[in-house]
Please model this.
Amino acid sequence: MQKKAITVEGSKLYGPYTPGVSAGGIIWLSGQIDVEAGDDVKSQTAGALAKIDALLSAAGCDKNCICFAQVLLDDIADFAAMNEVYGAWVEEMEIKPARAAFEAGALPAGAKVEIVVQAIAKNCC
Model:
Protein backbone atom coordinates (compact mmCIF):
# COMPACT_ATOMS: atom_id res chain seq x y z
CA MET A 1 0.00 0.00 0.00
CA GLN A 2 1.39 3.38 -1.00
CA LYS A 3 0.60 6.50 1.00
CA LYS A 4 0.30 9.73 -1.05
CA ALA A 5 0.09 13.35 0.06
CA ILE A 6 -2.80 15.48 -1.18
CA THR A 7 -2.01 19.17 -1.39
CA VAL A 8 -3.20 22.30 -3.17
CA GLU A 9 -0.52 24.82 -4.10
CA GLY A 10 -0.77 28.04 -2.13
CA SER A 11 -2.90 26.61 0.69
CA LYS A 12 -2.05 28.02 4.11
CA LEU A 13 -1.10 25.47 6.75
CA TYR A 14 -1.55 26.10 10.46
CA GLY A 15 0.83 23.43 11.75
CA PRO A 16 3.07 20.49 10.86
CA TYR A 17 0.61 18.32 8.92
CA THR A 18 -0.29 17.24 5.40
CA PRO A 19 -3.61 18.68 4.14
CA GLY A 20 -4.69 15.25 2.92
CA VAL A 21 -3.45 11.68 2.69
CA SER A 22 -4.57 8.89 0.38
CA ALA A 23 -3.81 5.22 1.05
CA GLY A 24 -5.56 1.98 0.17
CA GLY A 25 -8.46 3.72 -1.56
CA ILE A 26 -9.24 5.92 1.47
CA ILE A 27 -8.80 9.71 1.60
CA TRP A 28 -8.33 11.53 4.89
CA LEU A 29 -8.39 15.31 4.88
CA SER A 30 -7.01 17.32 7.77
CA GLY A 31 -9.38 19.76 9.42
CA GLN A 32 -10.03 22.66 7.07
CA ILE A 33 -10.48 26.21 8.32
CA ASP A 34 -10.65 29.50 6.46
CA VAL A 35 -10.31 32.47 8.80
CA GLU A 36 -9.45 34.65 5.80
CA ALA A 37 -12.97 34.08 4.40
CA GLY A 38 -14.55 36.40 6.97
CA ASP A 39 -15.39 36.87 10.62
CA ASP A 40 -18.67 34.96 10.61
CA VAL A 41 -19.35 31.22 10.68
CA LYS A 42 -21.20 31.21 7.34
CA SER A 43 -18.24 32.71 5.46
CA GLN A 44 -15.77 30.45 7.22
CA THR A 45 -17.91 27.37 6.56
CA ALA A 46 -18.11 28.22 2.85
CA GLY A 47 -14.34 28.77 2.79
CA ALA A 48 -13.58 25.47 4.54
CA LEU A 49 -15.89 23.61 2.15
CA ALA A 50 -14.19 25.23 -0.85
CA LYS A 51 -10.84 24.00 0.48
CA ILE A 52 -12.30 20.51 0.84
CA ASP A 53 -13.56 20.65 -2.76
CA ALA A 54 -10.08 21.68 -3.96
CA LEU A 55 -8.30 18.93 -2.01
CA LEU A 56 -10.73 16.26 -3.20
CA SER A 57 -10.25 17.47 -6.76
CA ALA A 58 -6.47 17.20 -6.31
CA ALA A 59 -7.07 13.59 -5.22
CA GLY A 60 -9.18 12.89 -8.32
CA CYS A 61 -12.47 12.86 -6.39
CA ASP A 62 -15.33 15.13 -5.51
CA LYS A 63 -17.61 15.59 -2.51
CA ASN A 64 -19.77 12.64 -3.59
CA CYS A 65 -16.96 10.35 -2.42
CA ILE A 66 -17.17 11.66 1.18
CA CYS A 67 -18.38 9.05 3.65
CA PHE A 68 -17.97 10.99 6.91
CA ALA A 69 -17.71 14.63 7.91
CA GLN A 70 -16.87 16.02 11.32
CA VAL A 71 -17.72 19.66 12.04
CA LEU A 72 -16.07 21.39 14.98
CA LEU A 73 -17.58 24.69 16.09
CA ASP A 74 -16.02 27.28 18.34
CA ASP A 75 -19.54 27.96 19.66
CA ILE A 76 -22.42 25.47 19.29
CA ALA A 77 -24.75 28.48 19.03
CA ASP A 78 -23.39 28.79 15.45
CA PHE A 79 -24.78 25.36 14.51
CA ALA A 80 -27.81 26.64 12.57
CA ALA A 81 -25.77 29.15 10.55
CA MET A 82 -23.10 26.54 9.74
CA ASN A 83 -25.78 23.97 8.89
CA GLU A 84 -27.43 26.36 6.42
CA VAL A 85 -24.21 26.61 4.37
CA TYR A 86 -23.29 22.93 4.80
CA GLY A 87 -26.84 21.87 3.86
CA ALA A 88 -26.68 23.82 0.60
CA TRP A 89 -23.28 22.22 -0.15
CA VAL A 90 -24.62 18.65 0.25
CA GLU A 91 -28.08 19.33 -1.18
CA GLU A 92 -27.47 17.74 -4.60
CA MET A 93 -25.61 14.70 -3.23
CA GLU A 94 -27.52 11.44 -3.68
CA ILE A 95 -26.02 10.00 -0.48
CA LYS A 96 -25.05 12.67 2.00
CA PRO A 97 -22.11 11.84 4.30
CA ALA A 98 -22.58 10.63 7.83
CA ARG A 99 -21.72 13.57 10.09
CA ALA A 100 -20.94 14.65 13.62
CA ALA A 101 -21.00 18.29 14.76
CA PHE A 102 -20.03 19.59 18.16
CA GLU A 103 -18.49 22.48 20.06
CA ALA A 104 -14.73 22.35 20.42
CA GLY A 105 -13.63 25.76 21.66
CA ALA A 106 -10.31 27.38 20.82
CA LEU A 107 -9.98 26.19 17.22
CA PRO A 108 -6.73 26.99 15.37
CA ALA A 109 -6.12 30.60 14.31
CA GLY A 110 -9.31 31.75 16.03
CA ALA A 111 -11.49 29.88 13.51
CA LYS A 112 -15.21 29.62 14.11
CA VAL A 113 -15.50 26.26 12.28
CA GLU A 114 -13.22 23.41 11.26
CA ILE A 115 -14.36 20.58 8.99
CA VAL A 116 -12.70 17.16 8.70
CA VAL A 117 -13.72 14.57 6.09
CA GLN A 118 -12.93 11.03 5.08
CA ALA A 119 -13.71 9.76 1.58
CA ILE A 120 -13.37 6.75 -0.68
CA ALA A 121 -11.18 7.30 -3.74
CA LYS A 122 -13.28 7.64 -6.91
CA ASN A 123 -11.96 4.43 -8.40
CA CYS A 124 -13.10 2.62 -5.24
CA CYS A 125 -16.70 3.82 -4.98
